[in-house]
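Much of what follows relies on a compact textual record of a protein's fold. A record is reproduced here so that you can trace the correspondence yourselves:

. . .
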Amino acid sequence: MSHELASSADPMARWAERQDWIQPELERKAQGAVHAAFEGMGPTGDRLRSFLQGEWLHEPLHAAVTDIPVGAWATTVTLDSVAALHPSPGVDAAADVALWVGLIGAVASAVSGLSDWAYIEQERPRRVGAVHALLNIGATTIFAASACVRRHHRNNGRALAGIGFAIVALSAHLGGNLVYEHKIGVRQDNGAENEGEQGGGI
C-alpha cells in the first residue's frame, strides 16, 4: 500500500497503515482462508460465524471479550509492581492467576477478532486490523513467556509482562481506531453494520 493512502488523523493508525511489508495479497489470502473454513463447515460454519461475530449478543463479541485479557494483564502488571516493592507470596500468586486468565481470554479475543477482520473489505482498516492482530499475537507470546519463566526467575517474568502490556496498550489503541474512525462493527441507522459482509468490531 502506498504511503499516499495512509491518511488517518491518528499518528499510530498512520504508522499501522504504512506497514507496506504486509502485502494486500497476503491479507486477502488470509481472509479467504477464514471464509473457506466457515464455508467448509456448512450450516455449522454459519452458526459459528454468527456466534463469533456476536449476533446473539447484539454487539461484536470481540469488543466484549477483549476486556478480559486487557483487564487481567493490567492486574498482573499492577500486582507485580506491588510485590516488587513489598514482597508477598500471596500477591505473586494473584499476579500469576491474573496472567493465566489473560492468556485464556486472549484466545477467545483472537478467534472472535479474526472472524471480524476476515470481512473487512476496505484497504486501510484491513491493514490497521492486521497490525492490531500481529501486535496482539506478539504480546500474547510475551505474556506466555512471562508465565513460563516467572516461577524460577520472577523479576524476568515481571519485566516481560511489562513489555507485553505496553504492546497491548498500543494494540488496543489501534482497535479503538477501527471502531471510532472506520466504524468497524458500528450499527448504522438502517440497522446494517459497517464494513464487509458481517463487519464485527476489532
